[in-house]
Amino acid sequence: MKLARRFRRLAKGAVIAAAVAVVETTGLSVSTQADSKLTPINTNVYTPKNDGSGWLNGKNYAALSPRVIQLEHQANPKDNGKLLMTFEQVITNNQAKTGSPSFPIYESDDSGKSWKKVSSVLPTNHQGNSPRWGFMNCPQLYELPEKIGDMPKGTVVLAGNATPNDFNDPKAATDLEMMRSDDAGQNWTFESSIATAGPSKLLGDPVWEPYLMVYNHQLVCYYSDERDSSGLKPKAQALVHQTTTDGKTWSPIKFDVDPNKISDSRPGMATLAQLSNGKWVLTYEQEGGKNSGAKISDDPTNFNSADAGTTIAPGGAPYVTKLNNGDIAFNNNGNSTSDNKGGYVFVFKDQESLLKGTWHPTKQYSTQTGIGYNRQILPLANGMLLIANGHETNWNPSRIDVETIDVGDTEQTGGNVTVHYVDQNGKSIAPDDVLKGGQIGTSYDVSAKTAKQIDGYTLTGITTGKDDVTGNFGADPIDITVSYRTIQSSGTPTGPIIPNSNTPTNPTNPTTDTPTKPTSTNQAAKPTKVKPFMAYAKRVVYKYDKATFTHSARLSKVAKNTTMKVVATAQSTNGAKRYQLSDGTYVTAKDSFVAPLYLTKKVKQLRVIKTEGVYTYKERTLAKKNRVKHVKRGTTLRVKRLITHRLTTRYQLTNGNYVTGNVQFVK
């Protein structure tokens, strides 16, 4: 067995090496650093420290319900393939005196072998509340596969329960919130409240256990609903969902499993997957976790709520997922053994075999980390199945572990990387170079092709995708455009010089020609992505739907001092610079009309210019509760350092306090 496995590794390596040799002859290269799917891992991500004061709200665990996603739609291709993890992190009673529980975000860039914490998510819209609020119970991570509202494809969203630290506080309540990250989990902002309810505890009338997915161009949030206001009988719980097309406003609830129509009074913990026949399966707890059930629908937003489903396994906390090869994988916290190892993963070929349940699986696999409550399974791009395990609620010590197992899945191949070659008028002048997509998360490099020399033309630079020349394959295709100018018979280039080029003019064809003025037939260059920043209107301006401003392209007026999020720069047909905003519209980039909202230079002192003055704060989060002192207009502040905070800047003063870097307040 070992010899056969070793032979497969060697054979696979030889095939990859041969493929690279062929690719490199065309000037395109792809990394082969992806982990072999034949090498399982088993690693600890987090083990909490117990200070002896007990866990908040009397819980008998400190970490539970891990959720992992693998990024594949990122605007920065270097983030494709990364794993992000979150979980419920319970704090101690001592820690709760000065802090609140958060959802931690961990990152892995080696398919789960190693992890590092990159951020913590707190319910920012409840900061400053009394009592203190935090995030608790089952979180859910999701990467948007398409644009929803002003959230572009690749935005990472997180749903979970915001609640006061003390579940028994008279003001205790639950706010099922959605947070968003525009930078692969590094920073987070509040997006919307999905639903509100009673205290986040059993029989407290809560909502919890969210599951997110996009279907039919809308974001769907499934969750367990215990609210009497939803029309439920006392102590009952339903499975419901709500949808949104803009990320802000959510539809009324729709029942997926209604306890008023079936004998089961507590269905819960929904997860979904699409079957090979195109239908959708919803798995969920039956009778409060006694069993796990499944029900089928052609439309995942239209399950028969009066259908009690088919029991497919003993025990609750089910999780179902579709493998890369189309098979269905399933696990739950049933199937335990006398040594409490259990924790099998079951694979089913199709709908018929799935509905026969775990008593008759197509295949069955044992695990190293064993049985676990709310354990997640995730197919990785390298063909391995990742298991994220928080173990049981009374596990001592609490810990979050991950392992991978080989269930016979296939690798997931990403989109192609295509390099286009155009002249100063946007006309193609050479065949595209196409690097066929490799395994998602493996690296590519097409820098050699972006320096290509073409007879009769001189290279002016990369006009689209200059930040995508190197990166990791994702699920989406990547397009890079390289521009050139025609060389006249005298040997000098003609046509306008493409601005913002990061490649110098060919030194073998120097020119001192003044570029010709673009004609009305020239097309505006495609927008070039920039690191997002906030800007403001210094006077009244207008939004347009194109980079070339015409009266017919005008959309709306922007009032003076209005703030805007800039995501790209563009040019009109006559070369005028524009800003592209997060909503896809364009405004002028003239500094006298629109300018960055925050200072970005390191300075030794600032002067307050706001008529009403400004506050200093004890923390970089400029919340009302953190205010230290009001400073009058004209006051000079001594600066220690510049700090970037999400899309803003702060300055830490020499006394340790903080002040905004907003140009409307200080200079």
Automatic annotation (TrEMBL):
The keyword Repressor does not apply. CDD domains: Sialidase_non-viral. Residues 1-17 form the signal peptide. Residues 489-526 are annotated as: Disordered. Transmembrane segments: none annotated. Keywords: Repeat, Signal. The keyword Repeat applies. Residues 492-522 have a biased composition (Low complexity). It holds the Pfam family DUF5776. It comes from the Bacteria. Residues 534-594, 598-666 form the DUF5776 domain. InterPro entries: DUF5776, MucBP_dom, Sialidase_sf. Residues 416-485 form the MucBP domain. This is Exo-alpha-sialidase. The lineage of its organism: Bacteria, Bacillati, Bacillota, Bacilli, Lactobacillales.
